[in-house]
Design brief:
The structure is a single chain. The protein has about 475 residues and is of the alpha/beta class. Helix content is about 35%, strand content about 20%. A hairpin with a 3-residue loop joins strand 5 and strand 6.
Length: about 475
């Protein structure tokens, strides 16, 4: 029986030809339909050149399993989430997000946008697809095309109060990915609703050849175009997205990249400072990941909320969001989750909220985050390829644990001291360690401790290929 290596812990992702092709996509559709037996599945696809054919193969597999299929067209992942929530159907997005150009994959959710992971059916789908021996349904499903863009745009605009938004010029960089058509639709609504936001569009048109490189602004080398455009156009803020725009990355009015960690705190504060609904007695819970925490916990506590830590990763965060009925959740990697968006992550809602904050507070983005950056300077995530992640983590732990005030193993190891802390965790998919360090108001200490930990990890560095 063929082993399908494109199945990961939370989604499907693989190299084209070797790990993922139209035949495998068809089998995934058949397996999904046979395992879950949904009545209808909404499918969308990103701009990759392979996405249309993989999407159609997936659709045929679903229909041959007796499932009706709604083709949403070119979409970002969150548009599928929205369809799954608003239409109460299952959803599958064909995307490889920020992976190299020779990759593609799928993200799967049940009706209501409940994620499908290894623990909730993805493993079973893999087994069925590997066996490639499917039951014959009573009837074949039907395909129809439907656009949910207008309803999705209306939902996005429900997060801001139009009358509060002041004139703003925003640089928007879709990275030639799937975000462009949403920006165009928002721009049309801004005109109709007299919302004074002006867009400066760069790398805007969808292009699966990615002429300006794979859109992944988490990498420093992918930020220059947005930064330069902000300065050149004297914009109030810059926004860049990854390929399927479920993450957004913000730049201040000087073109400086703002670490996602501080945006989590900014949005948590904004939600917690909203006027309380007298008919809503739910506690204001905020979910965060364990990599960088002090700023978020400080802000949430000061504003009467409850900060709850979750293991890193969208499946874990979404599960905890639902479990706690949390108002908002954020990861430093620029994933932001919203209770009113089916507890899912969105790359559009965050920048809309920040745009309104700039207007309401009458401050620049640099001013909104400056105090928090000073209070909790952070290293940003440092990725290291190593020969043995377990040994490397054990070595660092042995050195620092005796003097630590607290050890947390929610995800890797987090060791806290009176004036600094760090998290060291292994990647789930590759021999890489991810290090994050922060301090209490002492950037020099943060840099010194970062260098210390990196020195301990140096003997484990893998040779470059």
């Amino acid at each position: 029986m063929e082993r399908l290596t494109c199945f990961k812990a939370y989604d499907i992702r693989g190299e084209l030809g070797r790990e993922l092709n139209e035949d495998i996509a068809y089998r995934i559709g058949r397996a999904y339909g046979q395992h879950f037996r949904p009545e209808t599945v909404a499918i969308g696809g990103d701009v990759r050149l392979s996405s249309p054919s993989l999407k159609m193969a997936l659709a045929q597999g679903l229909m041959d399993a007796g499932v009706d299929v709604i083709d949403l067209g070119l979409t970002g992942t969150e548009e599928v989430y929205f369809a799954a929530q608003s239409l109460l159907v299952d959803g599958i997005e064909v995307t490889a997000s920020h992976n190299p150009i020779n990759y593609n994959g799928m993200k799967l959710v049940r009706a209501g946008a409940i994620p499908v992971s290894g623990d909730t059916g993805l493993h079973d789908i893999r087994i069925l697809a590997e066996r490639n021996d499917f039951a014959t349904p009573d009837q074949v499903g039907q395909l129809r095309y439907q656009c949910v863009l207008n309803d999705y745009i209306d939902h996005l605009l429900s997060y801001i109060t139009s009358s509060e938004v002041k004139p703003l010029r925003l640089v928007v960089n879709a990275g030639n990915g799937a975000a462009g058509h949403v920006i165009d639709a928002l721009e049309a609504q801004f005109g109709q609703r007299r919302i004074p936001i002006e867009f400066v569009k760069i790398h805007h048109d969808p292009d699966g050849t990615f002429p300006h490189g794979i859109p992944n602004p988490l990498l420093p080398e992918c930020r220059a175009a947005t930064s330069q455009a902000v300065r050149a156009h004297q914009a109030d803020m810059g926004i860049a997205w990854d390929g399927d725009f479920d993450r957004c990355f913000l730049f201040d009015e000087q073109g400086r990249f703002i670490e996602g960690y501080y945006i989590v705190g900014l949005l948590a504060q904004a939600f917690l400072q909203q006027p309380a609904d007298p008919n809503d007695s739910r506690p204001n819970k905020i979910i965060h990941d364990p990599r960088l925490t002090w700023n978020t916990i400080d802000i949430v506590t000061a504003n009467g909320g409850q900060a709850i830590q979750s293991k890193t990763g969208h499946a874990f965060i979404k599960e905890r969001m639902r479990q706690e009925d949390a108002l908002y959740g954020g990861e430093m990697s620029a994933h932001h989750y919203f209770r009113d968006f089916a507890y899912c992550d969105s790359g559009m809602i965050p920048w809309l909220l920040v745009a309104q904050l700039l207007s309401v507070k009458g401050q620049r983005l640099s001013e909104l985050v400056a105090g928090r950056v000073r209070a909790y300077p952070a290293s940003g995530e440092i990725n290291l390829t190593v020969t043995d992640t377990d040994d490397a983590i054990a070595t660092v732990r042995a050195v620092y644990e005796p003097d630590a005030l607290a050890l947390d193993q929610t995800d890797g190891i987090s060791l806290s001291f009176s004036d600094w802390r760090f998290n060291l965790r292994a990647s789930n998919t590759e021999p890489v360690l991810r290090l994050n360090v922060e301090s209490r108001g002492d950037p020099a200490l943060m840099k010194t401790k970062t260098a210390e930990v990196l020195a301990l990890l140096q003997p484990f560095s893998a040779p470059r290929s």
